[in-house]
Amino acid sequence: MTATQSAILYVFSGTKNTLTVAEMISAKFQLHEIACTIVQIGKAHPCNTDCSQYDYIGFLYPIHAFNTPKPMVDFARQLPVAVDKQRAFIVKVSGEPFSPNAASSKILMGILNEKGYRLFFERHLLMPYNIWFRYPDGIAKHMYRFNQTYSELIVHLIIKGEVEKPRLLLLSSHIIAFLFRIQWPGARLNGRLHSIDRTRCIRCTRCVAECPMGNISQVGDSIRFGWSCAMCMRCVCYCPTDAIQIGILRFWKVNGPYDYKRLADDPLLPFPYITDETCGYFKLFRPYYRAAELELATHGICLTQNRPYVTMNRYTGGIDT
Ligand SMILES: Cc1cc2nc3c(=O)[nH]c(=O)nc-3n(C[C@H](O)[C@H](O)[C@H](O)COP(=O)(O)O)c2cc1C
Ligand code: SF4
Ligand code: SF4
Question: What residue ranges define each of the domains in the chain, with the CATH number in brackets?
Answer without folding.
Answer: 6-176+259-320 (3.40.50.360), 185-252 (3.30.70.20)
